[in-house]
Amino acid sequence: MSGIIETKKQLVKEIADKFQASQSTLLVDYRGLDVAEVTELRKQLREAGVDFKVYKNSMTRRAADSVELGELSEVLVGPTAVAFSNDDVVAPAKILNNFAKEHDALEIKGGVIEGKIATLEQIKELGNLPNYDGMVSMLLSVLQAPVRNFAYAAKAIAEQKEEQGA
Questions:
Q1: Reported pTM
Q2: Residues 44-62: pLDDT tens digits?
Q3: In sequence order, what DSSP letters do the residues of 26-71 get, joined into one string?
């Protein structure tokens, strides 16, 4: 009997560690998805570096309580899968939002973003953001704009002086 309890304690610790290490964690209800759809969802999440697992709700509740995320207990009802992302905050929200648009059976229940409980609206907004590479690209284009404008102005002045000198 004590072996079973010890195994459960280790599982709770594993889940709690994942909650603490992840940048974003999303809880979803996957009822109604067939095997092919779940396989496709797992593939997309795995390619993005997201850990997607199904744990018993009681174990997940205990882990959430141990890392002061007890509010998640409200959504830990019925079949629940958990998506943990350690690197990219946006990836799980983006993938799960897009998948839910195509498959009505997938329902996002709640989540944690950077250690704080997130509302469904916040998760949907996060899912609409570009991924990390897209954000870096946008930042670089914003940073390059003043330099580009200065170069155009300098070129225009140089051409104007050439015309005046000719």
A1: 0.71
A2: 999 988 899 988 888 888 8
A3: EEEE-TT--HHHHHHHHHHHHHTTEEEEE--HHHHHHHHHHTT-GG
